[in-house]
UniProtKB/TrEMBL annotation, chain B:
First and last residues shown, out of full length: 463 to 509 of 623
Stated family: Belongs to the CNOT2/3/5 family.
Domain of life per record: Eukaryota
Protein name, entry field: NOT2/NOT3/NOT5 C-terminal domain-containing protein
């Protein structure tokens, strides 16, 4: 029984300003840290691509099912995000180790020849993010002070 | 009749809390892991 | 007072110098390295020599960022350029706040933070008056969200001031509430519902100390939306803000139902009565520790439920809302002595505030009166070691008042009165129980079919909107249509139109 109620003058002014703001709305990425690579702008992908976020895609288990290359991509191109954090955890579960000086991921290729308090030495596989590929490195010394 | 509140892009049947991945009041879908700032070890900030 | 000669040049030089330091990537891994060098420079330029130069510097720097925003807004990839500059400036603010004064001296840090927030608020409100519909929210949005995220980083010094930081931002967002800065309303909703802000103010601050502050921000939002929502047709800009509000409320319903339970009363005071679904959203939550029995359970014995006797928390002092004090005094004396009878005949005049159709009554007073009388009734019944039932709620000063309101008010007033009762039909608790009995009793004892029809309308309009529906509403309506004592199906209004009859039958079928 209340019916409609006329907008008062002050509400009309408020509406004009709200309406003007409506035509340059904030986007979700305005509230996110700047992404050096991948801004948070949804891109229209073909309809047959998964349009919804895959279930449980924000869990380590999901990331563990991804290939190392995918994990490396997430790690290097989505830095400072939860995705990078989950990718790093998944890589560690696949016995990759992050070298904080070279900023690359290493994995033992065989039992190291030398192990002591400071370092271990032997043949490793590492992921070279500049050449974007896995490389073998023999006789590499992995100093534990660089183990993240 | 109001809105179909299930169609606002929130997973209301989720057992976990929604707010940690809330994409914002004007987002049609939750924020994905790559959208969420995270305090990662500073060594990971390779830029 | 204008800046001293040369000040702006120095301030601009310093600001750009800092941005260059910050953008030099090696610092992003060790922000402190460049900061200590820069602080020495600020000192050398006299910026840190007291309150005034520092205030001038922040006002200049903030204005510089906003001017940069307006200048570059239409450039391609504008936001990356604008944001990298603003983010650098905000990083400087955050470092100054964090490192000002001794690490244990929080007041220096907070004075500085509040000063800076106040400067940004002042510039925003002034800018809005200058630019009116050309006002750009994005620069201010970026400053606030980035500063909040910087000061929310996991850090022992910041943890120590987290409640004060949240309080400072709540105060700022209240000053920038949509009614004060309508051009900023979309950013404002983004800011108060940012996942980090929600997590901090509702989950991480101990003893729910952030809940009251957050309830005030939501009240600011509802008050702003109210005049636009009062008319069913929503213009696009309103609908966008309204949908955003619903999303935020859904997150609260899902993650913090107890918060909505505690503040439902204050929210219903400011949500327009025709905003049925949003109000249902506010009334539907129940404590996560509670298991709700299916309202459609045949022969559900509501008064046998474990939780039905619990007193729900109402975090607003509704008794204090009963004004003027003379009216409250008369009310209390009537409740006590069930006299003088003249009190009943004057009730309506205390509630009516105008003769304009649609806004004749003081809704918050109506809501407070109903809840106050109801809680007094529950206490009175309890004092006799009884619980609310159709027998224990009658022949009392409390029911005199409710029956008088049902009979004496006009259609508009009775609609608001019945709404005040229906707003208490929530999850199993003593208020739901009492008010469910109360509205059914008013239906059963009504001396005119108009009252019965209006009670039905008030319940029905809450049921036919999309979900969610409060548990107490469902069990009350089911009782009304099931219990033959109310002769519900014999009323003409139940069969007034085929679709209405079908609707009742479909509800009845789902009950059986």
């Amino acid at each position: 029984p209340l019916g409609t109620s006329k907008l008062q003058k002050e509400h009309q002014i408020q509406f004009q300003r709200m309406e003007a703001a409506y035509y340059h709305l904030p986007t979700p990425s305005d509230s996110e840290r700047l992404r050096p690579y991948l801004q948070r702008q949804p891109v229209q992908t073909p309809a047959h691509f998964p349009q919804q976020q895959l279930p449980h895609s924000d869990t380590v288990e999901f990331f563990q099912r991804l290939s190392p290359e995918t994990l490396f991509f997430v790690f290097y191109y989505m830095e400072g995000t939860k995705a990078q954090y989950l990718a790093a955890k998944a890589l560690k579960k696949q016995s990759w180790r992050f070298h904080t000086k070279y900023m690359m991921w290493f994995q033992r290729h065989e039992e190291p020849k030398v192990i002591n308090e400071e370092y271990e030495q032997g043949t490793y596989i590492y992921f070279d993010y500049e050449k974007w590929g896995q490389r073998k490195k023999e006789g590499f010394t992995f100093e534990y002070k660089y183990l993240e | 009749m109001g809105q179909d509140l299930m169609a606002l892009g929130l997973n209301l049947t989720a057992s976990d809390n929604l707010y940690p991945s809330f994409g914002g009041p004007f987002a049609d879908a939750p924020a994905r892991p790559q959208d969420i700032d995270y305090s990662v070890p500073p060594e990971y900030l390779i830029n | 007072v204008d800046d001293p000669p040369g000040f702006q040049e120095r301030a601009e030089y310093l600001l750009k110098d800092w941005v260059a330091i910050h953008l030099n990537t090696s610092n992003s891994r060790d922000p402190l390295k460049g900061f200590s060098v820069f602080v020495a420079k600020m000192n050398m330029h006299g910026i840190l020599k007291g309150d005034e130069p520092l205030t001038r510097f922040f006002r200049f720097a903030t204005q510089y960022c906003i001017d940069l925003t307006y200048r570059n807004m239409n450039e391609p990839a504008a936001k990356t350029k604008i944001f990298s500059f603003i983010d650098a400036y905000v990083r400087l603010i955050a470092l100054l706040v964090k490192h000002s004064g001794e690490s244990g001296n929080t007041s220096t840090k907070l004075n500085l933070l509040n000063k800076i927030l106040g400067i940004v608020v002042g510039l925003l409100l002034q800018d809005q008056e200058i630019h009116t519909t050309a006002f750009q929210q994005v620069g201010y949005h970026r400053i606030f969200v980035t500063l909040f995220l910087e000061l929310s980083a996991s850090d022992p010094v910041l943890e120590n001031i987290s409640l004060s930081v949240i309080t400072a931002f709540c105060h700022t967002f209240h000053l920038l509430r949509p009614a004060a800065a309508p051009g900023f309303c979309y950013s404002w909703l983004e800011l108060i519902s940012h996942r980090v802000f929600l997590g901090r103010i509702l989950a991480m601050i101990p003893q729910q100390k952030g809940w009251y502050m957050y309830s005030q921000l939501l009240i600011d939002l509802f008050k702003y939306l109210a005049p636009f929502l009062r008319n069913a047709e929503l213009a696009k800009p309103v609908h966008h803000l309204y949908k955003g509000t619903l999303r935020v409320l859904l997150v609260l319903l899902h993650d913090f139902p107890e918060f909505l339970c505690d503040y439902h009363f204050a929210f219903c005071d400011v949500i327009p009565p025709n905003c049925i679904q949003m109000r249902n959203l506010i009334l539907s939550p129940y404590p996560r520790s509670m298991r709700l029995p299916d309202p459609f359970t045949p022969n559900l014995k509501v008064d046998m439920l474990n939780d039905i006797g619990g007193s729900p928390r109402v975090s607003i002092n509704y008794a204090a809302a009963i004004q003027p004090a003379s009216f409250k005094k008369d009310l209390d004396s009537y409740l006590k002595a069930r006299a003088p009878v003249t009190f009943l005949s004057e009730l309506r005049s205390n509630l009516q505030i105008s003769n304009d159709v649609g806004s004749r009554y003081n809704i918050p007073l109506m809501n407070a009166l109903v809840l106050y009388v109801g809680t007094q009734a529950i206490a009175h019944i309890r004092s006799k070691n009884l619980g609310p039932t159709m027998a224990t709620i009658v022949h009392s000063a409390h029911m005199d008042i409710f029956q008088n309101l049902a009979v004496d008010l006009d259609t508009e007033g009775r609609y608001l009165f019945l709404n005040a009762i229906a707003n208490q039909l929530r999850y199993p608790n003593s208020h739901t129980h009492y008010f469910s009995c109360c509205i059914l009793y008013l239906f059963g004892e009504a001396n005119s079919e108009a009252i019965q029809e209006q009670i039905t309308r008030v319940l029905l309009e809450r049921l036919i909107v999309n979900r969610p529906h409060p548990w107490g509403l469902l069990i009350t309506f089911i009782e009304l249509i099931k219990n033959p004592v109310y002769k519900f199906w014999e009323h003409d209004f139940v069969h007034c139109a085929p679709e209405i009859a079908r609707l009742f039958e479909s509800v009845a079928k789902s009950c059986m």
